Amino acid sequence: MAIEGVDIIRSAAFLGAGFCMGLGAIGPGVGEGMAAAKACEAIGKNPKEAGLLTRTMLVGQAVTESTGIYSLVIALLLLFVV
Amino acid sequence: MAIEGVDIIRSAAFLGAGFCMGLGAIGPGVGEGMAAAKACEAIGKNPKEAGLLTRTMLVGQAVTESTGIYSLVIALLLLFVV
Amino acid sequence: MAIEGVDIIRSAAFLGAGFCMGLGAIGPGVGEGMAAAKACEAIGKNPKEAGLLTRTMLVGQAVTESTGIYSLVIALLLLFVV
Amino acid sequence: MAIEGVDIIRSAAFLGAGFCMGLGAIGPGVGEGMAAAKACEAIGKNPKEAGLLTRTMLVGQAVTESTGIYSLVIALLLLFVV
Amino acid sequence: MAIEGVDIIRSAAFLGAGFCMGLGAIGPGVGEGMAAAKACEAIGKNPKEAGLLTRTMLVGQAVTESTGIYSLVIALLLLFVV
Amino acid sequence: MAIEGVDIIRSAAFLGAGFCMGLGAIGPGVGEGMAAAKACEAIGKNPKEAGLLTRTMLVGQAVTESTGIYSLVIALLLLFVV
Amino acid sequence: MAIEGVDIIRSAAFLGAGFCMGLGAIGPGVGEGMAAAKACEAIGKNPKEAGLLTRTMLVGQAVTESTGIYSLVIALLLLFVV
Amino acid sequence: MAIEGVDIIRSAAFLGAGFCMGLGAIGPGVGEGMAAAKACEAIGKNPKEAGLLTRTMLVGQAVTESTGIYSLVIALLLLFVV
Amino acid sequence: MAIEGVDIIRSAAFLGAGFCMGLGAIGPGVGEGMAAAKACEAIGKNPKEAGLLTRTMLVGQAVTESTGIYSLVIALLLLFVV
Amino acid sequence: MAIEGVDIIRSAAFLGAGFCMGLGAIGPGVGEGMAAAKACEAIGKNPKEAGLLTRTMLVGQAVTESTGIYSLVIALLLLFVV
Amino acid sequence: MAIEGVDIIRSAAFLGAGFCMGLGAIGPGVGEGMAAAKACEAIGKNPKEAGLLTRTMLVGQAVTESTGIYSLVIALLLLFVV
Amino acid sequence: MAIEGVDIIRSAAFLGAGFCMGLGAIGPGVGEGMAAAKACEAIGKNPKEAGLLTRTMLVGQAVTESTGIYSLVIALLLLFVV
Amino acid sequence: MAIEGVDIIRSAAFLGAGFCMGLGAIGPGVGEGMAAAKACEAIGKNPKEAGLLTRTMLVGQAVTESTGIYSLVIALLLLFVV
Amino acid sequence: MAIEGVDIIRSAAFLGAGFCMGLGAIGPGVGEGMAAAKACEAIGKNPKEAGLLTRTMLVGQAVTESTGIYSLVIALLLLFVV
Predict the structure, then answer these.
(1) What fold does the segment set J27-81 form as a domain?
(2) Which CATH superfamily is domain M15-81 in?
């Protein structure tokens, strides 16, 4: 009834999940913010192309989001599947 | 009645939750701030397109917010579900 | 009456709460400052749109604030609910 | 009369409070400084709008201050309530 | 029934998976965000070439994504195969 | 007469106080320096508004100072009240 | 049946694999993103040379990718061969 | 006559004092340097206002110095009062 | 059959290999990306010299790659020869 | 004659002194360098005001030096008085 | 047959070799990349001097490479000679 | 004849001396380099004032050097006096 | 035949050698790269002075190299003489 | 014949020497590189003053070198005198 191996495994998994999602949110957060900032700047200069620019921004952000989603997937796997 | 495995698991989960949300707030916070900054700059130059620019800013920030929300989800899961 | 499991859990929760809020205040603090800086710059150039720009700044900061509030929520949960 | 659990809890709470407020002062400090810097620059260029610009700066800084205040709240809770 | 070697191996694998994906998301996230930002800027200046620019952005982001995917692969291998 | 719990609590409080004030001085120090730098620049360009600019700089710095003062308060509480 | 040497070796290998791929993804991710960003900017200015520029970007990114692939190779060797 | 609690308390206080003053000198040092740099630049451009600019620089630096002095106070308290 | 010295040696070698390749990929990755970015920019301005510029870029990247290859060599030596 | 409390106190004081002065030299060193750099730049443009600019630089550096001197004071106190 | 001193020596040497080469690749990698980037930029502007510029770039990179080679030498000495 | 208190004190003093001088060389090194860089730039533009500029650079560097010398003093005190 | 003091001394020396050379390669690597980059830029603008510029670059890099060589010397002393 | 105090002292001295020289090479390396870079740029623009500029660069670098030499001195003292 003392500390067993499975407890240490789960502890490591939970710590790993926390750092995985925490660190993994830094890159996409900054990157998508840069995309949004430049899109606003471009629309301010050329508002007629707002639809085109919003679409480009969203496509670019969607790809950027991918590593954030990978982090989410790994964190969820560490929480539930393992 | 001494320290048991489940205590270590919960400790790891709580530490992980703290770092997950703490680190996960850095990226979106900086990124959304960049978007808001550029939107203000653009509206100052082209105030007639303020609605369009605010909408673009909010859409861009909403996507940027996503990794912050993922961090919140993982942190809540570490607190309550685990 | 020696150290028991619940003590370690609470210690981890309190350390986690401290780092969660401490780290989580960096990103929004820098981001909102960038928004405020650019809003002041824009109003200086185009003071007639001050109301519009202040509104945009506040909307942008409100979204940026969100990850800071998430950190507050997680920290409070670590302090009281857990 | 040796080290008991409550001592470890309080130690963790005090360390957490220190890091919470220490780290939490970095972001708002830098951010509000950026806002103040840009406000001075704008007033230098357009001194007639000094009242408007000071008001905008203060509003922007007030929002930026919020994450600093959250850190203060969490640190005080860690010191006194817990 | 105490802690055995396989438990330590799995703990290390889970911690490693967390850091692998967490750190591995920083670089591609920032890099892809830069690509998206510049694509928006370029489309705002030259909207007739939007298709060409979106294609270039996506090709560039796809290559940038590769190291993020490598991190995902290593993290999944650490979770399931090992 | 060996190490007791209250000693560990005070040790943690003193370490926490040191890091709290040390880290908490970084942000306001850099931020207020930026404000002072820009105020000097603006006064150099527009010396007739020196009073107005000094006032704005001081107001902006006063708000920026706040997180530094919060750190001082928490550090003093960790030293004396706890 | 307790912890043996081979368990510690494998633990170190798995932790090393995680950090190897995680850290090794930062550099190429940022670098390739810079290349993609500049390629988009150049195509926006000179769309007639889009093929040439895309080819140059891909060649440059392919070389940049190499250190990311080295990291992948070392991580895989740490997982399977060792 | 072995290690007692008061020794650990003083050790923590001395370590804390060292980090408090060491870290607390970074921010004001960089910030005041920025103010001095900009003041020199401004005086070079507008030497007739040298007195005004030096005064502004000193006022701005005095406020910036405050967090450095707070660090000194906390460090001295950790050394002597505690 | 317990932990012997050779196990600790191999563990250190594997951890060292991981950090060696992981850290060693950051510098060349960023550096080669800068070279590729500037080559794209230059070709966009002067497409007639594309061959010359691509050759220069590749030569420059090949030298930059060298420290990445050194890291690979050391990591492989740590894995297999030692 | 084994390790006693006063030994640990002195060890902590010496480590603290080292970090206090080491970290405390970073900020003023960088800040004063910025002031010196800008003073050289300004004198190069306006050599007639060299005396005035050198005086301003020295006054600004003297204030910047203060946090470095505080660090020296705390380090000396940790070495000799304590 | 337990852990002996020579095992600890070799472990330290291998860890040291890994960090030596890993950290030592960052500086030259970034520096050589900057040289290659500026050479590409200069050749794009002045392609007639391509030979001269490539030679200068290679000479500059060769000197920059030196610290990377020192790191390689120290790492190899740590692996084989020691 | 085993480890005594004075050994630990000296160990701490030597480690502290190493970090004190190592960290304390970063700030002045970078700061003086900035001053030298700007002095070269200014002399290139205005070579008639070379003597004046060299003198200003040396005065500025001498003040900047002070924190480096403080670090040297503390490190020497840690080595010999203590 | 167990672990003796000389083993710990050599382990510390080898670890110290690794970090000494690894960290010591960062500064000169980046600095020499900056010199090489600016030399290429200057030769591209003024190719007639290529010999003079290459000589200046080499002299400047030779001085910059010195701290890298100091690191090599200390690392070799830690490996062989100690 | 087991581990004695002098072994721990020497271990600390060797580790301290490694970090002292390793960290102490970063600042001067970067700073001298900046000086060399600006000198090359200035000579490219004004080659007639090459001798004057080289002399200024060398004087500036010599002062910058000082903190690197201090680090060397402390490291050598830690190796041989102590």
Answers:
(1) F1FO ATP Synthase (1.20.20)
(2) F1F0 ATP synthase subunit C (1.20.20.10)
Question: H41 to chain J nearest CA, in Å?
Answer: 6
Alpha-carbon distance of J58 to B14, in angstroms, equals: 51
DSSP string, I69-81: HHHHHHHHIIIII
I36, G4: Cβ pair inside 8 Å?
Answer: no
CATH class of N13-81: mainly alpha
- Would you say domain L14-81 falls under CATH 3.90.580.10? no
Give the C-alpha separation, K74 to K53, whole Å. 32
Query: Residue E48 corresponds to which tokens in the numbers above?
Result: 């007739």
Partner C, chain B 42-61, Cβ-Cβ below 8 Å: 43-45, 47, 50, 53-54, 57-58, 61
Please report, to the nearest 10 degrees, the dihedral formed by the alpha carbons of residues L5, L7, L13, L16 taken in order: -100
Instruction: Write the ipTM.
Output: 0.89
Place of tokens 């040092």: H29
Q: How many CA atoms lie within 13 A of J72 on its CB side?
A: 15
Assigned CATH for G18-81: 1.20.20.10
Neighbours of G50 (CB within 10 A): 19
CATH, domain range C12-81? 1.20.20.10
List chain J pLDDT tens, one digit each, 82 residues.
477 888 889 999 999 999 999 999 999 999 999 999 999 999 999 999 899 999 999 999 999 999 999 999 999 999 998 7
Residue N25, helix vs strand vs coil = coil
I60 membership: H or E segment, kind and range:
helix I50-76
The secondary structure element, H or E, covering residue B47 is none
DSSP for G45-80, please give it: H-GGGHHHHHHHHHHHHHHHHHHHHHHHHHHHIIII
Q: Which of C56, C27, G28 is nearest to B67 (CA)?
A: C27
E38 and G41 Cβ atoms separated by less than 8 Å:
yes
Is E in contact with A (3 or more beta carbon pairs below 8 Å)? yes
| Residue J69 burial by Cβ neighbours in a 10 Å radius (0-12, 13-18, 19+) | middle
Pick from N9, N19, N21, N63 the residue to mutate for testing the M interface (most M CBs within 10 Å).
N21
Give pLDDT tens digits for M61-71: 999 999 999 99
Q: What is the DSSP string of J29-81?
A: HHHHHHHHHHHHHHHHH-GGGHHHHHHHHHHHHHHHHHHHHHHHHHHHIIIII
Residues 6+ apart with CB under 8 A from L8: J3, J7, J8, J11, N5, N8
**CATH number 3.90.460.10 given to H17-81:** no
Task: Give pLDDT tens digits for F7-43.
Answer: 889 999 999 999 999 999 999 999 999 999 999 999 9
Question: What is the separation of C-alpha K66 from the centre of its chain, rounded to a whole number of angstroms?
Answer: 7
**Closest partner residue to H59 among F17, F54, F72, by Cβ?**
F54
SS3 of chain E: the string is CCCCHHHHHHHHHHHHHHHHHHHHCHHHHHHHHHHHHHHHHHHHHCHHHHHHHHHHHHHHHHHHHHHHHHHHHHHHHHHHHC
Question: I4 pLDDT exceeds 90?
Answer: no
Residue I68 burial (10 A CB sphere; 0-12, 13-18, 19+): buried
- Assign a CATH topology to domain B25-81: F1FO ATP Synthase (1.20.20)
Task: Chain M: give the shortest CA distance to residue K38, in Å.
Answer: 5
From the list K32, K40, K75, the residue facing I42 with the nearest CB is K40
Neighbours of chain M (3+ CB pairs under 8 A): K, N
Q: What are the CA-CA distances from residue M1 to residues I2, I9, I12, M9, N11 (Å)?
A: 18, 18, 22, 16, 20
**Does domain E26-81 correspond to CATH entry 1.20.20.10?**
yes
What is the 8-class DSSP label of residue C2? -
